[in-house]
Automatic annotation (TrEMBL):
Highest classification ranks of the organism: Bacteria, Bacillati, Bacillota, Clostridia, Eubacteriales
Pfam families, sorted: DUF1967, GTP1_OBG, MMR_HSR1
Assembly: Monomer.
Name of protein: GTPase Obg
Occurrences of domain OBG-type G (ranges): 159-330
Cofactors, names only: Mg(2+)
Ligand binding (GTP): 165-172, 190-194, 212-215, 282-285, 311-313
Keyword set, alphabetical order: Cytoplasm, GTP-binding, Hydrolase, Magnesium, Metal-binding, Nucleotide-binding
Organism (species): Senegalia massiliensis
InterPro entries: G_OBG, GTP-bd, GTP-bd_Obg/CgtA, GTP-bd_prot_GTP1/OBG_C_sf, GTP1-OBG_CS, GTP1_OBG_dom, GTP1_OBG_dom_sf, OBG_GTPase
Length: 426
């Protein structure tokens, strides 16, 4: 089964908590704090595997979570880092953030990797909080949560040449002749329901890949027929080979067919419609071709396109055409990518900066929220004086106390900090 879309949830592992521990050894009565740091959480990593051709493995499993880091230990021992979770995807996979729809990665080459969700940082153990004035800290730092997001994966085939045209114009037959691909071929509409890839082998330096895209019909860009499902697969191609049934045996006008398909390309993606394109008049072995071809050739060449006459059934003109395609690919070289990768976006309130902090007043109660504050709460032992003092100092450093004053807070007013109730005092 050819699966070219998937939606999955990814979450990096949480960081392990720092430990509160003490050094207690013979002859060391005042050993001091010895709590180690927590381990970092594992990352979720997408990896390109050239052995894959579809996103089938991700069709039914939707949730992926990396291993969390271990908590810190005594004797200043660090917790073990969580294992990274690697998700293999086929080459040509586009990664989008589900919330914004923006492209955040374009994975094309073997072993190309992308960290799609970072693991949380491990918290510091109490040994890290010891200083000249606080020699026996009874608190440690909590680990941060791993990043999480829903992502959309879309497969866009890696091909040099895209075969386009109406259904039943001979694209699959042509592909089966020039490559080892074996698409299903029959004389009825929509025989091809999946894109097919074929490698044309001329010599080691001039091989190229052709993608046969299921037949387009008018209105494909809006979702009519099958073509709209696969237009994305020709976005990477350097050259479009537009195949036309020049015989007109199905009652269609070849010139009209040409204009309809190009209109669909333009409506789907303006850049795609500007890709280099040649026109191939197929089924030239049929008698009606003699009447249709001269007029068709003249009309299309007026528009600036080269026209080639072939018969995929008899192989007439096919060999010359593939050498022409090879030559054109060399002349075209590299093209501006249609797929634009955005800079990585912020993930669901996991930013460790002051912008993430929300201080608000609702009725006569004050609220403080944000991932930075949650982390601070996880790190605080409210039964310990040193830990409480450190908590208050961090609130001042983060500007939270000043913001509460600006909102008009008074002594003994209630403050809700991440679900915990406190009384405000200077």
């Amino acid at each position: 089964m050819f699966i070219d879309k998937a939606k999955i949830f990814v979450k990096g592992g949480n960081g392990g908590h720092g430990a509160v521990a003490w050094r207690r050894e013979k002859y060391e009565p005042s050993g001091g704090p010895a709590g180690g740091d927590g381990g970092h959480g594992g990352n979720i990593i997408l990896n390109v595997d050239e052995g894959l051709r579809t996103l089938m493995d991700l069709k039914f499993k939707k949730h992926f979570k990396a291993e969390s880091g271990e908590n810190g230990k005594s004797k200043r021992q660090y917790g073990k880092k969580g294992e990274d979770l690697i998700i293999n995807v086929p080459p040509g996979t586009i990664v989008k953030d589900e919330e914004t729809g923006r492209v955040i990665a374009d994975l094309t080459e073997e072993n190309h990797t992308f960290v799609v969700a970072k693991g949380g940082r491990g918290g510091k153990g109490n040994a890290k909080f010891a200083n000249s004035t606080r020699q026996a800290p009874r608190f440690a730092e909590g680990g941060t949560k791993g990043e999480e997001r829903w992502i959309l994966l879309e497969l866009k085939l890696l091909a040099d040449v895209g075969l386009i045209g109406f259904p039943n114009v001979g694209k699959s037959t042509f592909l089966s002749i020039v490559s080892a691909a074996k698409p299903k071929i029959a004389n009825y509409h929509f025989t091809t329901i999946n894109p097919n890839l074929g490698v044309v082998k001329l010599n080691d330096a001039n091989n190229f890949v052709i993608a046969d895209i299921p037949g387009l019909i008018e209105g494909a860009h809006e979702g009519t027929g099958l073509g709209h499902e696969f237009l994305r697969h020709i976005e990477r191609t350097k050259l479009l080979v537009h195949m036309i049934d020049i015989s007109g045996q199905e009652g269609r006008d070849p010139i009209e067919d040409f204009h309809k398909i190009n209109k669909e390309l333009k409506l789907y993606n303006e850049k795609l419609s500007n890709r280099p394109q040649i026109v191939v008049a197929n089924k030239s072995d049929l008698n009606s071709t003699k009447d249709n071809f001269p007029e068709f050739k003249e009309e299309i060449e007026k528009l600036g396109y080269d026209v080639y006459k072939i018969s995929a059934a008899t192989k007439d003109g096919v060999k010359q055409l593939i050498y022409t395609i090879s030559k054109l690919l060399k002349e075209i070289g590299d093209l501006e990518p249609i797929i634009e990768v955005e800079e990585d976006i912020k993930l669901y309130g996991l930013d460790d900066d002051k912008k993430d902090i929300v201080v608000r007043k609702e009725d006569d109660e004050y609220f403080v929220e944000g991932s930075v504050v949650e982390k601070l709460m996880d790190s605080t032992n409210l039964d310990d004086l040193d830990s409480t003092r450190y908590f208050q100092k961090r609130l001042r450093d983060l500007g939270i106390i000043d913001r509460l004053r600006e909102l008009g807070i008074n002594e003994e007013d209630s403050v809700n900090i991440c679900g915990y109730e406190f009384e405000f005092f200077e």
